[in-house]
Amino acid sequence: DRILLDIWFGTFDLIAVNLTAPDGTVFRQDPGFSGTFPDSTKGVTDIFNFIHEPNGHRRVLIDIKDAVEEYPPMPGEWTVSFEADGFGFNAWLVLDRVGNQFAAMQGGNNALTVTTPGTSFEAITAGAYVLRDQWINVLEEPVFIASGQIGDLAVFSGRGPTRDGRIKPDIAASGRFVASSRSTTSNYSNLITLPGGMQNMNSGTSMATPQVTGAVALLLGHDPMLGSREIKEALQDGALTDLFTGLAPNTDWGHGKLNVIGALSVLEGGQPDWQPRYINHYGRLNGPDGQTRT
């Protein structure tokens, strides 16, 4: 059981933090002070109030956990308040599980949810969209799992911008229900195991990122002398946009959907000769010529 709140402020802001437990107990941490509070009856409570040296910004970490087994985090409404003038902040609920209950921030949204290392300047950061919502499993049974619209951004895909206003992610690739290799020692459900038992349906930006990595490898195979910036710009400029991405670049999709043909064409100074028009329910790409690619 642990609740972890990560809060960022501007450069060298002097912020005092007050954390109020559901029973009214107040835990206060002044600027530059960090540590564990002796009262553990509401859960072991740590507040770290410090300057993050790599960027000089004030960071506050609030950590409430069940390090003392008989005192899990107290259920109810916890309130965080700050004492300072004219400041802004961004906050992320990093850990949110208490028993079979989940914590939630009031008034939160999905913006600024791209995390490190995806926020770095030079990284090619991948978002994820829905590839499919149905397949035939290892038992030869049809499976359907509602996942949003095929081709639309996946609910778990991190949204930008970064705290300093940069567009992230840079590009999006398929990440919801992608067929991936299965470990022989895994015990995945038959629901998501594919015929033959060698692959599973998996989801995450961890499914989208390898596709972008493979695209980079293909571009390097085309021209081994390409630099990282050239590769990134080719992927961005060659990306596909559609009704789901809207006008790009934007802070949900970056520059659009991964399109290796488009990136290669950019490097050659031309335009792609074929782009997918839409993705059907089985994850196949239907082009404007009526042909279907897998």
What are the low-pLDDT stretches, counting only 5+ consecutive residues below 50? 276-294
Count of helices?
Answer: 3
Question: Quick one: how many beta strands?
Answer: 18
Q: In whole angstroms, how far apart are the ends?
A: 43 Å
Estimated share of beta-strand residues: 25-35%
Structural shape: globular
Kindly report the average pLDDT value. 86
**Spatial strand order of the main sheet:** 4-5-6-1-8-9
Question: What is the N-to-C succession of helices and strands?
Answer: EEEEEEEEEEEEEEEHHHEEE
Rg from alpha-carbon coordinates = 23 Å
How would you classify the helix and strand content by structural class? alpha+beta
Estimate the helix proportion, in percent: 10-25%
The major β-sheet equals: 6 strands, antiparallel
Quick structural summary:
The chain has 294 residues and is α+β, with helices and mostly antiparallel strands.
Describe the structure.
This protein is of the alpha+beta class. Helices cover 12% and strands 30% of the residues. It has helices spanning 205-222, 228-237, 260-267, and strands at residues 2-11, 16-20, 26-29, 34-36, 44-52, 57-65, 79-83, 90-98, 101-102, 126-130, 134-136, 142-144, 171-176, 178-181, 199-202, 278-279, 285-286, 292-293. A six-stranded antiparallel beta sheet has the order 4-5-6-1-8-9, with no helix packed on it. Helix 2 crosses helix 3 (260-267). It is globular. Mean pLDDT is 86; it is low at 276-294.
